[in-house]
């Protein structure tokens, strides 16, 4: 968020609009916070800088052909997830952090879901990961300001904390 304070402010505005009197975001708030939840911020974080750009290796159990290329049984396959998530046709200006690209774009959501793997070998903890990311992002955005905007936001009569106000930073 330090690199994109305008995005941070937009997400914070959505949180402050939904929550009241300094309430900490809960998982039950996910549907009320689409910019922070799976439709925007969380998926853009995963798309912009994927944790495993080449995914996990897969072992072919039988011969296969991909685009006229013969792949023998026992071959190790790596999927270039980074390339999929940087596709200019699907994600214009992929180097930019732009959560709004996921608003009302179900195709983009389907594509970025590859971050959790494919088919039978997809991550079994995807629901836990999504919930954990949402709550981490939402709580961080609801409670802190960054150096680009050092003046704390007013949160329904209560001021947000800054890193320095809790003893971190300058």
Automatic annotation (TrEMBL):
InterPro entries: Cyt_P450, Cyt_P450_CS, Cyt_P450_E_grp-I, Cyt_P450_sf, Cytochrome_P450_fung. It comes from the Eukaryota. This is Cytochrome P450. Pathway: Secondary metabolite biosynthesis. It is found in: Membrane. PROSITE patterns: CYTOCHROME_P450 (PS00086). Keywords: Glycoprotein, Heme, Iron, Membrane, Metal-binding, Monooxygenase, Oxidoreductase, Transmembrane, Transmembrane helix. Belongs to the cytochrome P450 family. Its cofactor is heme. It is a single-pass membrane protein. Heme binds at residue 123. The keyword Iron applies.
């Amino acid at each position: 968020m330090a690199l994109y304070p305008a995005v941070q402010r937009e997400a914070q505005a959505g949180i402050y609009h939904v929550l009241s009197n300094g309430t900490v975001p809960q998982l039950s708030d996910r549907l009320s916070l689409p910019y922070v939840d799976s439709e925007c911020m969380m998926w853009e974080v995963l798309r912009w800088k994927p944790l495993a750009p080449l995914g996990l290796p897969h072992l072919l159990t039988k011969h296969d052909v991909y685009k006229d290329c013969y792949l023998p049984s026992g071959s190790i396959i790596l999927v270039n997830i980074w390339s999929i998530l940087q596709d200019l046709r699907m994600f214009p200006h992929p180097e930019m952090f732009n959560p709004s690209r996921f608003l009302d774009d179900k195709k983009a959501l389907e594509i970025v879901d590859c971050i959790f793997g494919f088919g039978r070998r997809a991550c079994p903890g995807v629901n836990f990961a999504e919930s954990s990311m949402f709550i981490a992002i939402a709580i961080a955005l609801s409670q802190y300001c960054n150096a680009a905007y050092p003046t704390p936001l007013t949160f329904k009569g209560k001021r947000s904390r800054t890193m320095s106000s809790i003893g971190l930073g300058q």
